[in-house]
Amino acid sequence: MNDTSSTAAKADPAKLSLDFHHDHRLVDPSEQGVQTWTVHITADSETVGSLRATRGMYWQSENLSARMADEQDFPAVVSGQLLKPDGTFSDKFEDFVDMPGSVLVIDQLELPAPWDDPLIVAGVASSVIDRLTDNYFAVVFPRTAVTSCPGAALLEEAAAMLSADPFSDELLIIDNTLAAPEQAAHRVRENLRLRARYGGAEPWNEDVGDWEDDEDDDGILTPRTVAVLRLALNELSNEAWQEAAALGDEPLQRGAGGLFGKLPPVTFRQGSAWRREMARSFDDLLDDLNGKTEVEPRCTGEEMALHLGIARARALERNRPRLVREAAAGLPEQRRDFDWSACSDVLFQDHDVLMLFDAALDGIEDSSSDVNQALGMVNLAPLDWFTPFSPGLARDAARGFRDA
Predict the structure, then answer these.
(1) What local confidence, expressed as pLDDT, does residue 230 receive?
(2) Could you tell me if 127 and 18 are in contact, meaning their C-beta atoms sit under 8 angstroms apart?
(3) Residue 202: left (phi > 0), alpha (psi -120 to 50), or beta?
(4) What is the pLDDT of residue 387?
(5) Measured on CA atoms in the order 209, 213, 217, 220, is the torsion positive or negative?
(6) Residue 2: pLDDT above 70?
(7) For a pLDDT cut of 90, what percent of the chain falls above it?
(8) What strands lie across the sheet with 46-56, from one edge to the other?
(9) Long-range CB pairs of 351-360, under 8 A, 24+ apart, other chains included
(10) Would you say the C-alpha torsion 151, 154, 160, 163 has a positive or negative sign?
(11) 256-279: per-residue pLDDT in tens?
């Protein structure tokens, strides 16, 4: 295994992108059985490596065994172990995977330092799998014993991170019909995002030691983070005011949609005045962030508004990248940009309000309950949501409402 600690700061996964290349001959019948993809790995538009992905589609080939064997190299090894000469699946493969079907063979990795890191390779492989498979594929990696396969050692480490199981001395296989590989891929992607956030170094690495003192990277709420959080809170405010006007005093049923339907069920029977207070909580947080990079929820309603704002900001980053780029345009990039997990950890005194979502804790909002008193909870009952946590945190009572 490579020593990644000394090169991590240089191998920033945020710089990487993948270019998928496949030539398809329109009238060649062999194209229906096997596709060979070359995946170029680029950093800042410069190619730094590549790997090969071979799709063997069982239902589109007269004899997938013969067709893959014709590719030679590692695909031929895979063919010899997963398929019989007549093109049917081997007994061992039938027993090994839940639903044997098509295969994706990943091999021929070329990735020099500083990118030769198992986590980066696992991230690349995960993206290739997402792009080229569905739930009926077995994904095959080489093991180190396949000495003729470039990058076999790195691919074996990456495959283990992606929850691949040993099939033989030469093969590791991911069964894409199972949940474990998707969970493993999620962990890999989250770890890569965390590393990218810290400029290529691990946050627990000694290379990160001085970052908290970096005047250009001061705190969790960086300017770009604030811009996206404001965008999220503004969206939620608009939705809250529209719904408050439409719902009036109408109680909600479990499973109700909309913003108020996303709140804990103990709030579903609150009326128009309460909903207007909740809508104003988003506006109050927006005012706090006006030209600032700090925010402090002053009551339970504002805590819930901020939780929803962080969740919406995370969703915007993932699903609306163009909108996020526009919101953050011209603002300096910092290592802690869009660290929503850290926002959830740091911006609250506690997460007691989230316990209201747990059906097993029904009644915990009652200040006279044993659990509430034992845990020292305050202001969880809906009628107390807009009571300040302390007199010094009270907002100006004359500030009014947005639609007043």
Answers:
(1) 97
(2) yes
(3) beta
(4) 96
(5) positive
(6) no
(7) 62
(8) 16-21, 34-43, 46-56, 102-110, 137-142, 171-175, 165-166
(9) 351/307, 352/377, 352/380, 353/264, 353/300, 353/303, 353/304, 353/307, 353/380, 354/307, 355/380, 356/264, 356/265, 356/266, 356/380, 357/264, 359/265
(10) negative
(11) 889 999 999 999 999 999 999 999
The CA-atom distances, in angstroms, between 380 and each of 262, 277, 386 are: 16, 15, 10
Does residue 5 have a pLDDT over 50? no
> 120 CB contacts (<8 Å, ≥6 apart)?
11, 13, 16, 111, 192
Distance CA 260, CA 244 (A): 8
Confidence of residue 134 (pLDDT cuts 50, 70, 90): confident
C-alpha torsion angle, residues 114, 116, 122, 125 (rounded to 10)? 100
User: What is the rounded distance in angstroms from the CA atom of residue 68 to the CA atom of residue 93?
Assistant: 16
Instruction: Give the list of residues 6+ apart from residue 370 with CB closer than 8 angstroms, or none.
Output: none
The encoded tokens of residue 59 equal: 């239902």
Could you give the 3-state DSSP secondary structure of residue 219?
coil
Please name each of the domains of the chain with its CATH number. Answer: 13-207 (3.40.630), 223-399 (no CATH)
Give the tens place of pLDDT for each residue, 77-133.
Answer: 999 999 999 989 999 999 999 888 899 999 999 999 999 999 999 999 999 999 999
